[in-house]
Structures are given as C-alpha cells and as structure tokens.
Give the backbone structure.
Amino acid sequence: MSHHRDQPTQPGHLVSVVIPCYNEQQRLDTEAIAKFLSTRSSTRIVLVDDASTDNTLTILAALASKLPNQVTVLRLETNQGKAEAVRHGIRHSLRVQPQFVAYWDADLSTPLQDLDRLVTSALQAPDAIMFSASRTLMTRRETLQTLTRFIVSRLFARLAKALGTGLSDPQNGAKLLRNGPWLDQATSYPFRTRWFIDLELINRARAHSPLEIDAERLFTEIPASSWQHKTGSHLRYLEVLIDIPRRASDPLAGVRSQDRFGFMIWSSLLLKGIHCQGSG
C-alpha cells in the first residue's frame, strides 16, 4: 500500500493516466514519472507498449517493478498505432473504476503536473466529460512549433469547431476524461484510425452522451502551463493526412459537408507542400 502524500487537488479522486509508448527508450523520462507519482497516491499510470522494437518494454517493466502499486505495463503483441494503444489502456483502467481517466503523450511535452489543474477543472464543471490542456490558450509559448505541425494543428482545430466542441487545440496529447457509461461505450470497439484518437473520441463522446447536454458544454479547455517541442516523434504527417479520406469516416461523421471539403483541400495542399519539400 502506498503512503505517499496526496496533492490538494486530488484527495480521494482516483485518476488513471494512460501513456502509449512505441520505441521510446530515448525519450521516456521515467524519473519525471516517478517524481510525479511520489506525491500523488491516488494516481495510477498505465504504460502501453505498442510492440516496440527497442528497449522500451524493459524500461517500462523496471519502472513498474519500482512502483508496483501505481504503475502497470500492458504489452501489445502487434503494433496498432496510438489510438488503439490508448484505447487498450483506457479499457484496462476502467476495471478499477477510477473517477477520471487521462491519456498523455509519452514525450511529456505537456508536463504531467497539468493533470492536477485538469482535475480541478473537472470538479468545477460537472456536465463536462473531456478536459484538455491547450497550447493555443497559453499566454506565452516556450517553444515554436514547426510550420507543418502548426498547420496540421490548425486543421484539427477547424474540424473540432465543426463538431461543435469549441476546442482550440484538440490535437494536444494531454486530456482528462470523466468516467461514466459514455466512456465504456465509446471505447468498447476499435478506433478506425491509427492517429485521429482525439477527433474520433470527441465524435464518440457526442454520440454516447446525454442528448440534453449541449455539445459545447461537454468539452473544456485550460491553458497548458508549458509546452516543449520534443524531437524524435513517431508521428508521420504524410501518413496522418492520407489516413483522413482512407480510414477516418467515423471522426468526420457529423461534420458539415463544406467543413469536410475544406479540410480535405487544406490537407491536399499540405501534402503537396510536404512532397515538394521532400523532393527539393
């Protein structure tokens, strides 16, 4: 049994944080994770190894052996992509019936400490079910994004707006989800895309939430305390954008035809730009 002291923002609120990992031996900061957990006994972390081919699984297992009451490692036998890795982690987390489930990018570009602020926001907004740390709402940017990353993030924001969420930065990998029937239903079947977990989950949340609650009230953003661009991302924007028309019919469902068409045009232009840069 853990004897760590709880943070004031999380007394008695069990939170499970899912961190998908694929070939993260050079980027995963296990010391930061252990330090974060040392003062948060009501927080659990589920590390999902998405069939890594490097030493990631060994590193994850070492952290779990050091903190067996707070860290769990799941191993996927085949590489399934971020969306499915997160979904498997959420399904595992729901077994212990936490009040909240979060998912966080393994590079910790948004610090784990922002989880406390997301929980505080969730306790103050009982109707909302998804809470996000937004880079767009930050008053000061610590690091500039690459042009490609910026354009893609704006495309995702446009889609999120079309879905009626009001989210300014749906792409940031730092989100908190309120547990409830909607979450069990929304994650009971595989995601259609490898990368569009945010948009697809937003769309599923709208589909499985009470109809009397306005869609915009379901989603809440707070400014991220900081955000730092990390190199070595396994995200390939070419693959992501090709995934839009090929596999993303679920996250695009419910979007007005003109918004969908505009998104496709912008995506095509970006793909062309990436191709030209690569061949130049």
Confidence is low (pLDDT under 50) at residues 1-11, 245-280. The longest strand covers residues 15-21. The longest helix spans residues 257-279. The two ends are 58 Å apart (CA to CA).
